Each structure stands twice: as structure tokens, then as C-alpha cells.
Amino acid sequence: xxxxxxxxxxxxxxxxxxxxxxxxxxxxxxxxxxxxxxxxxxxxxxxxxxxxxxxxxxxxxxxxxxxxxxxxxxxxxxxxxxxxxxxxxxxxxxxxxxxxxxxxxxxxxxxxxxxxxxxxxxxxxxxxxxxxxxxxxxxxxxxxxxxxxxxxxxxxxxxxxxxxxxxxxxxxxxxxxxxxxxxxxxxxxxxxxxxxxxxxxxxxxxxxxxxxxxxxxxxx
Amino acid sequence: xxxxxxxxxxxxxxxxxxxxxxxxxxxxxxxxxxxxxxxxxxxxxxxxxxxxxxxxxxxxxxxxxxxxxxxxxxxxxxxxxxxxxxxxxxxxxxxxxxxxxxxxxxxxxxxxxxxxxxxxxxxxxxxxxxxxxxxxxxxxxxxxxxxxxxxxxx
Lengths: 220, 154
Known about the structure:
- The structure holds two protein chains of two kinds.
- Chain A has helices at residues 16-21, 43-55, 93-100, 102-112, 126-137, 152-170, 180-188, 190-204, 209-212; strands spanning 7-12, 25-28, 64-67.
- By secondary structure, chain A is mainly alpha-helical.
- Chain A has a three-stranded parallel sheet.
- In chain A, helix 1 links the parallel strand 1 (7-12) and strand 2 (25-28).
- In chain A, helix 4 crosses helix 6 (152-170) and helix 5 (126-137) packs across helix 8 (190-204).
- Chain B is built from four helices and seven strands, in the order H-E-E-E-E-H-H-E-E-H-E.
- The radius of gyration of chain B is 17 Å and the shape is globular.
- The longest helix of chain B has 17 residues, at 127-143.
- Chain B is an alpha/beta fold.
- The interface between A and B is large, with 76 and 72 residues.
- Strand 1 of chain A pairs parallel with strand 7 of chain B.
């Protein structure tokens, strides 16, 4: 882009990248990955990042690599999120749980006017997808279980989006911190535990790494 | 209890060790004064409108985002970043509301009519984006009269 006659300024979140690739202008922000402007819902902070980034355009030569002075760590402390009580004890816990938070999901979607669920299925299909993952976690041959979209990564991204969007309505206190919704999903919900169990079982059955690894963040 | 290894720590260590293309020279285009510059965002978040065309994992083409479109889906195929941030406030990745404010107060000249998005998953050499998708996107930005491109990664 720069060679084509555009002036670029990059926000960096992994400092080794601009150090080695030497783009014309980069502002390194040691912020949680996924938050290049640092703080959702904080316009003043976002303007501070933009001001520092655009200031690099005043330099007469480069490459330029500067650091934002603030460091923000994604400490993965789960949000506090009251969940509906079990309703149907005959259902697998994750399926019952997903049905229980449907109202919160619908409110969240209506409030924002958009949803990230839809990669492999719609919200109506989330309980069915969890029931399929339960079969896998219980030892069924993962290839013969009917998984919506037939894509383990797309399915788990949709389930996570469904839960995390619902959590924005259910959680106490301020907006979730970095990776706080992720930590809640994988550490505090039946669905998160089920995704991890199904992932472990698919690995145990000898599937290729790409089938199971990306069903959850690497550190999980 | 063993100390918890944080996802960002693992990801930064992993990505920092990946091979990347390294360049002997850095291209350089002097910008006009910021108060006269037209600014566009290019992000690797693989954004798209709900129901619209999504980028596949490893796509080397790009998506076009009209500046008026705000309710966007985070299409990036990765669980290894804080996905909730974009849901809480898209400006933390795609700061169009902030750019509108900067245009309104005269800090920047104008906000581009179109913005662009790539898939964050790419092969290590990113050769297809460097040689094909990137130059094609640059030509579209130039056609829109863009001077300054803000690149935001997730």
C-alpha cells in the first residue's frame, strides 16, 4: 500500500512483527490481542491511541516504531454471570443451559442489531449442536455424529458467540474485561466444559490437529 | 497449583517465532497534512455484514465495507484473541465512530467512503496478499482518494 502511494500507519499488537517486517509507521500497543484500540466503550482512550498513531505521520523518514506507554494485560478472570436454574433434568446439562439463556441472547442481539452466530448454524440450532458434541464427548465416532455445518471450528465459534452475546446481558457490573467472557465460557459453563471434552475426545480418536485444536483457544 | 499460562502470552511467543517476510527497504509515501487527509481503515478482522459474504479461513482476497455499515460480524476464524471486545464496542477494532469525530472536529480531512478487511489467518509468507490482494485493495483506496490508511489487527 505504501509503495502504491498511500501513507500507512499500523497498530501493532505483537511487537516482533514490526521489529522484523519494518513497516513504514507502527504504533505498538501492548494491549490484549483483539483490542488494538485498547478499551471497548472508552472513546477517550481510543482517541489517545489514534492521536499517537497519526502523530507518526509527521515523521520525515522511517521505518518508525513507537510504543504506546500503557500496557493492558488480559488476565482471563471470568465474568460473574448468574445463570438460569436447570429446567429439564432429562436433557444433557449443556443443552438445558443453552435453552435457558436464549432470552438473554435474543435481547443482546436486538440491542446490538447483529449477531456473530451464523457461521455454521443459527441460534435455534445451538442446543442440537451441543447434543451432538455430547455424543462425541461420550465416545461416539466423531465422523459419524451429525454436526451442523460439518465443521468443528465453525460450530464451536457459533456456540461461543451465542453464550458470550447472552453473557453481555446476564453479567453483573461493567463490560467484561479482556478474555473474561472466554474464561467464563470455558471455565464456568456446561457448554464450555462440553466443547473441551468433545475436543479431547476428537483428538483421542486420532483426528488431524486442524479438526480439534482450533475448537478452543490454544492455552485451553 | 501451577501458574496459569495466559492465552496472549502463549500466542505472542508462538507468533513471534514464526517466519515472516523481511524487507531490505521500507517503502515511504509522505502524507498530506492530517487535517487535509482522507483516512481509511484496513483491518484483518474479516468483517462482513450479517448475511453478507464472509471471508473463508486463509482467504487472500478482501472484503469491502461501506462507511455507512456499522452492524458488522466478526468473521475472523480464530479463537485466539479476545472476541468479546468487538461485540462490546466495534470501535476497539474498527474505529469508524472515532474517525467520524476526528473529521467533524477537523483533525482529519475526511473519512473514506469505503474501508477494507482481510482474513487474519494467512500463510507465513503472506505472498498472495502482498502480490495480489494487497495491491488490488491499494488501487481501490487510491480510486477513493484515500491518503492515509490505518491498519488494525486482531
